[in-house]
Design goal:
The structure is a single chain. The protein has helices at 15-29, 46-54, 80-87, 99-113, 127-136, 168-179, 193-208, 221-233, 267-283, and strands at 2-7, 36-39, 57-60, 68-73, 90-95, 117-121, 142-143, 157-162, 184-187, 211-215, 237-240, 256-261, 287-292. Helix 4 runs parallel beside helix 5 and helix 7 (193-208) runs parallel beside helix 8. The chain is of the alpha/beta class. Helices cover 39% and strands 22% of the residues. The model has no long low-confidence stretch (mean pLDDT 94). The protein contains nine helices and 13 strands.
Length: 294
């Protein structure tokens, strides 16, 4: 059987992740005797975290573990409390926070200062959302649960922002409900443009393919969103984190195999997965063509 592997054109690292990785690797390469830390995973990809560890970059989970040296702030940002604590120490800080995440925080602060109830479309436990909440929770009421929209009686106006990896569909659903409960609703669409492009591509890819393989960390919100969207269009969607997982996939009946990846997935991993799929097909005496989505 002749098979075709179709790769999403924009699969892999987005601008914010590329920037963070560049800053992290440059910092690691220049290190002398001082220790280098990241507070949490710099991006949600285990292979990149492991590479940085091998270069001497230590990941910690608590600010109390960092007293001196250099701290690299992850793409998702950190909380106000963490930043305040770190600023009091003898540290060099390398800020790798994604510019789009910073912009979302700025919009949240604007809304909070102007008296809007803040609706955040996102996962309250995600580092990005935790960071934003920490800067505004003393200024206004913050709602992160869809069912709580309209539960407040103290304010007549609401502001809406979104976690940068959210789907447009979910944001629109929140806005629609907010409009039915508040007299005034101000919306900042803070979904990253790269996120929107990848989501549209993945939906299209799922419709065209017999099976879809999506590569990315299992704790990556944007990768999980791609899996969710693809699964609505295709009953054979596989989420893998490592190339070794290809061996467990049943792609025998799929003539067209779509491949996409989250924004934290390195190009070399995508290429290895494609090579592994191609090799497994050729071992079964099949033919395979690899093409980029048009």
């Amino acid at each position: 059987m002749k098979k075709k592997i179709v790769v999403a054109r924009n699969a892999g690292f987005c601008f914010g992740v590329k920037r963070a990785i560049r800053l992290a690797f440059e910092t690691a390469e220049k290190r002398g005797e001082e220790e280098i830390f990241t507070l949490g995973q710099i991006i949600h990809n285990p292979q990149v975290v492991e590479q940085l560890k091998e270069m001497g970059v230590r990941m910690v989970c608590d600010v109390d573990e960092v007293r001196c040296g250099t701290l690299i702030i992850r793409t998702h940002g950190i909380t106000k409390g963490e930043m305040d604590a770190l600023s009091e120490r003898d540290l060099k800080i390398v800020d790798a926070t994604c510019p789009f995440v910073k912009k979302a925080k700025e919009h949240a602060l604007t809304l909070a200062r102007e008296g809007y109830v803040l609706l955040i479309v996102g996962d309250r436990e995600h580092p990005e959302v935790k960071s934003i909440i920490s800067y505004v929770e003393d200024l206004t009421e913050v709602i992160t649960e869809f069912d709580r929209i309209g539960s407040t009686k103290r304010k007549r106006k609401a502001g809406v922002i979104a976690q940068t990896t959210q789907s447009q569909e979910t944001l629109e659903k929140w806005v629609k409900k907010a409009l039915s409960h508040f007299q005034e609703v101000r919306v900042y669409n803070t979904i990253c443009s790269a996120t929107s492009v990848r989501q549209r591509e993945t939906v299209d890819l799922a419709r065209r393919s017999d099976a879809v393989v999506i590569i990315g960390g299992r704790n990556s919100a944007n990768t999980r969103r791609l899996v969710e969207l693809a699964s609505r269009e295709n009953g054979r969607v596989y989420h893998i984190e490592r190339v070794e997982e290809v061996d467990s996939l049943d792609l025998s009946e799929a003539e067209t195999i779509g491949v996409s990846a989250g924004a934290s997935t390195p190009d070399w991993l995508i290429e290895e997965v494609i090579r592994k799929i191609r090799d497994s097909v050729e071992k079964g005496r099949g033919e395979v063509v690899v093409d980029t989505m048009r």
